Amino acid sequence: TQLLEQSPQFLSIQEGENLTVYCNSSSVFSSLQWYRQEPGEGPVLLVTVVTGGEVKKLKRLTFQFGDARKDSSLHITAAQTGDTGLYLCAGTRGGAGSYQLTFGKGTKLSVIP
Amino acid sequence: GAGVSQSPSNKVTEKGKDVELRCDPISGHTALYWYRQSLGQGLEFLIYFQGNSAPDKSGLPSDRFSAERTGGSVSTLTIQRTQQEDSAVYLCASSFRNRRNTIYFGEGSWLTVV
Prior knowledge:
The complex is a heterodimer of chains A (about 110) and B (about 110). Chain A has no helices and eleven strands. Chain A is mainly beta and about 110 residues long. Chain B is built from no helices and ten strands. In chain B, the strands form two sheets. In chain B, strands 2, 4, 5, 8, 9 and 10 form a six-stranded mixed sheet that branches. In chain B, strands 1-3-7-6 form a four-stranded antiparallel sheet, with no helix packed on it. The interface of A and B includes residues 41, 45 and 98 of A.
């Protein structure tokens, strides 16, 4: 059983469109992170959210942590070809000192020019 | 270097052979992690080192896997008697001890067992 379920698995959109990807769990996480991974590279941290209901913006990317800290979403406005990649969510459970990240399988995004 | 450095970047080995994967963390980072990314799977935690403390080996999938970290810096992940199911990308990451929400990954070592 996957602790963090990401949807959709694959997403192909035209440049300029908006999109939302989801990360859901039945478990509570003390923090949740989003990463982007490009082929042949390691994941790169985009954001960390720690408070239920928290919303963070990073240019055209908006991240939200659910009120119950069980789910999160990533919304991209006016997607660009440079947004193409694998988006991974990862959570930590337990106290603030927890270091073990639990990852979802990812959403593979393709932005077509 | 500025980032986490891993070697080799690609390794093809025959089933039954031993392999060693190396990770050089960011200078000053006391925490070091190994994760495995298999095709179609999410990243899977393997092992965690923090300073001179005993490592958390709870994620190692079998006793064929071991890791060490010498001098609180470079780490080596060793897989003995490799099996085809060991084929994956092995990712190393590092962080400051008090900033474990911000970890930096290397580019990974792609292992193929034939």
